[in-house]
Amino acid sequence: MYISKLILWLFSCFTLFILGYLVWNSFRTKRDVLSNTLGWPKSFTFDGYVDIFRDEHFGIHIWNSVVVLVVTIFIIVALASMVAYGLGRYKFKFKQGVLLYFLVGLMFPVQLGIVPIFLIIKNMGLINSLWSVILILSAGISMPVLLLSNFFAGLPNALAESARLDGAGEWKTFYRIMFPLASPVIVSLCIILSVSVWNQFFVPLVMLQNETVKTIPLAIMKYTSNILMSMDYALVSSVLATIPILILFFIFSERVISGVASGSIKE
Fold first, then answer.
1. What percent of the chain has pLDDT over 90?
2. What is the DSSP secondary-structure string of 173-200?
3. Which residues belong to any copy of the ABC transmembrane type-1 domain (predicted)?
């Protein structure tokens, strides 16, 4: 027990040190970082942040990442909640087979099927379009479906029966009563999926080649591929990519844990 705590503390301290070092050096000039990497900085400056938005148009990459994130999360939540409601509340033939299908889907990363996926996206004319990334990432509904189906299955039948007695149909029962009750699980899923979508690198790398449609991870790769020449931009872009999602996860960390726990326990 003590060894586990010690390992967790060491890992946490190391992670915080890396983040602090990243933020610290992002306020230094490139020459200062390269000439005095581990020493005390000569001065602090916001020039790196100003230059990356003015000269590199980094705002475009932030906007692309935000669009991909928001649309993808919306589609995943909409699809997964409706599929999970059907799986959790109704009995039908091959239900276990459908659940097994989504369970197996957790085991196959998108990298395994990237060639046929690329050909399909190309035939649809969506290469170099944000929709190519959105559609591919939106297909990853296995984990949300499994968590939400367990949650919906655990809700008492009296709720749905009361709604039907009041004249509500199946659709109205779902979006007026059942869906709001699942909000803790949905919020948790949104946070977890946001981290995954925001940091997604492989799919945008394959689908997006034009500079104007690239997301933040691809922009960071451009700077880190020539790290000595773009050290300041690499540090600043890494901070801009890391800190927002880290703050979001820190604020909602308790809701993430409680939401995942309520969705994973089947009563």
1. 26
2. HIIIIIHHHTHHHHHHHHHHHHHHHHT-
3. 62-252
Torsion, Cα 221 223 228 232, to 10 degrees, reads -130
Helix, strand, coil percentages for the chain (3-state, nearest 5): 75, 0, 25
Cβ(46)–Cβ(28) under 8 Å?
Answer: no
The whole-model pTM stands at 0.84
From residue 226, give the alpha-carbon distance in Å to each of 31, 32, 221, 229, 230: 15, 17, 9, 6, 6
- Write down the pLDDT at residue 257: 65
Model confidence pLDDT, tens digit, residues 192-202: 888 889 989 99
Helix count and strand count (H, E) for the chain? 16, 0
* Region of residue 167 (left: phi > 0; alpha: psi -120 to 50; beta: else): left
Please say whether the dihedral angle defined by the alpha carbons of residues 221, 206, 115 and 131, taken in this order, is positive or negative.
positive
Query: Would you state the structure tokens that stand for residue 62, as one six-digit string?
Result: 């932030």
Q: Looking at the predicted structure, is the pLDDT value of residue 262 above 70?
A: no
DSSP for 205-226 reads HHH--SGGG--HHHHHHHHHTT
**Residue 168, amino acid:** A
In whole angstroms, give the CA distance from residue 198 to residue 25: 23
DSSP assignment of 26-80 equals: HTS-HHHHHHSSSS--S---SHHHHHHHHTS-HHHHHHHHHHHHHHHHHHHHHHH
Confidence of residue 172 (pLDDT cuts 50, 70, 90): confident
